[in-house]
Write a structure and sequence with these properties.
The structure is a single chain. By secondary structure, the protein is mainly beta. The chain folds into two domains: about 200 residues, no CATH class; about 60 residues, no CATH class. It is about 10% helix and about 35% strand. Strands 4, 5, 7, 8, 11, 14 and 15 form a seven-stranded mixed sheet that branches. Strands 2, 6, 9, 10, 12 and 17 form a six-stranded antiparallel sheet that branches. Strand 9 and strand 10 form a beta hairpin. The radius of gyration is 19 Å and the shape is elongated.
Length: about 270
């Protein structure tokens, strides 16, 4: 049996003040559905079975990411989790570039009677404003038949941008035989439609002009100009200061936008 879907009841590392942390992107679980895909990191030697959940999101300003969370469970019980990993790509895997990855060894789970909270830490890595894909899974005792299951959730994001009902499963090793190793997360157990999957990213907004993420004084220096120029040349989302959607996305207007932000300083 290929257990991809179950029906179940129910950058630089910087410090940031905990009090300032907030939800920066979220598709929260509202209990409107009680089924979801497996997002499981299989034990060796079955690494080609690994399944990752994919969701899109966007942020309008740079943030220092604190942690990732998603609600789900391990089926069958008990809720045994060996690790949780979250990665951020600048385009849909497998074609996108890896932008950030959670810190190894920081994954954990808070078990619940019906719903558990899976989380992992980014520990202040800076994510520039832009559109991204969050990709995650959890490792459990697959040798005992256990799978990590994350609750599906329809509807729009509550915080941050992103398309509704736009979750996917990614099997990089190709074991499950999905076309291009990607499969939609369906809206029902018969495989119809497409759903989203709940997730939440916590972080702290940072000053846009502080491109290099420095915490020293003065906060804005010539290094930030060099950082912006490097981002512009690389074509990263951060360099799109004016948030334009035309072609080309990056233009001289972005330089002027950055100069204005630099002149305004960081409050």
């Amino acid at each position: 049996m290929r257990p991809w879907y179950w029906s179940v009841a129910a950058v630089s590392v910087l410090g940031g003040p905990a009090a300032a942390q907030q939800v920066v992107a979220s598709l929260p679980f509202t209990s409107s559905q009680t089924a979801g895909p497996t997002g499981t990191d299989y034990e060796p030697p079955e690494d080609d079975h690994d399944l990752w959940v994919i969701e899109d999101f966007s942020i309008a300003e740079a943030v220092q990411l604190d942690r990732f969370e998603a609600l789900g469970t391990v089926f069958p019980s008990p809720v045994t989790v060996l690790g949780v990993t979250a990665r951020i790509y600048d385009a849909m895997p497998p074609f996108g570039n890896l932008v950030l990855s959670s810190v190894p060894g920081t994954g954990s789970v808070v078990p619940g009677a019906a719903t558990s909270t899976f989380r992992t830490q980014f520990q202040g890595q800076v994510l520039p404003a832009g559109s991204y894909f969050i990709v995650w899974n959890a490792s459990t005792l697959t040798s005992l038949g256990r799978r990590a299951v994350f609750w599906a959730q329809t509807g729009p994001h509550a915080v941050g941008g992103g398309l509704p009902d736009n979750a996917w499963l990614w099997n990089p090793g190709g074991w499950w035989g999905y076309p291009n190793n990607i499969k939609k997360v369906p809206a029902d157990l018969k495989g119809n439609g497409q759903s989203g999957v709940n997730f939440t990213l916590w972080g702290t907004p940072v000053c846009y002009a502080n491109c290099d993420g420095s915490g020293s004084s003065p906060e804005l220096t010539a290094n930030d100009f060099q950082c912006f120029i490097s981002s512009y040349v690389s074509g990263t989302a951060y360099a799109n200061c004016d948030h334009s959607t035309g072609t080309p996305t990056l233009t001289p207007n972005d330089f002027q936008c950055f100069l204005n932000a630099f002149a305004a300083g960081c409050s």
